[in-house]
Amino acid sequence: MKMHLRYSDTKGKVLYDSEELGSEFIVQLTLPTFIGGLEEGFSMMGEGDSAVFSIPADSVFEKTFRQTLPPSVNKGDFLTFEVRMIRIMTAEEYRKDKNANPAKVTVSAIEQQSIDIYLVDNDVRVEPSRPGVYYIEMKKGTGECPMHGDSVEIKYTGRFLNGEVFDGSAQAGENLKYQLGDGMHLPAWEDAVSTMKEGGLSRLVLSSENAFGKEGFGPVPPSTPVVYDIELIKVGKKGKQ
Question: Is the pTM of this model over 0.70?
Fold first, then answer.
């Protein structure tokens, strides 16, 4: 489904507007995350339809967006969703449209909303390096910059958008040590580490398509965006270790 979507709080404050961002949302229709959820509303719409839905804020943020409520929204409030359906596609039509218009490829509407809310709440103002990948340099390093084949030592923390920690050096009891480019880590992670210098600290915000996908992995549920804080502790140059 390709649509424009806007939603606002009980005071009429617009919390999200896809048209203001100059983007169209593409979302795959799935089973509702709760009774009366957004997905039920989408399923009743046809191409060209416009609709307004009133949905409990705590349910949609907890079960659909998987985020805590923003400061302007209270538990028990209802959000107003305004939807304009642009196009409904079969899986095959979507694949053809995606291949014909690669620049339009985006992460799912639900995930992008969650990521955008996280960025706003944390005052992050960076453009994605590619759809669903946000790289934020928090501290510039001054040491060596790793290259393919170099050994790296990394202190890291993996979190969900709501701040809950699911992985990290503290949980493992030691820093992560491996050879850059070993093929065992997320491509977006490897790209981030390869741009850092010793002593640097970066934050990586990833959509599920750039992380653990529709299946999830271990403690990470399916279709879940993640945030990594990555500190490059040490670089061992290839051949000098």
Answer: no
